[in-house]
Amino acid sequence: MNALKLYAKRDLRFEEQPYPKIEKGTDVIIQIKAAGICGSDISRYKKQGPYVPGMVWGHEFSGIVVETGSQVKEVTVGSRISGVPTLTCEDQSINLCRYCRKGEYARCEQLTVVGAYYPGGFAEYIKLPEKNCVLLPDSVDLETAAMLEPAAVVQHGLFHTNLTIGDTVVVVGCGTIGLLAIQLSVIYGARRVIAVDISETSLHRAQANGATVLINGRTENILQRIIELTEGDMGDVVVEAAGSIDSSAQVFAYAKKGGGVVFLGIPYSDIQIERFYFEKIVRNELTIWGSWNSVSAPFPGKEWETIIHLIEKKKLQPERLITHRIKLQEGPKIFEELMKEETSDSFGKILFVP
Question: What is the pTM for the complete model shown?
Answer without folding.
Answer: 0.97
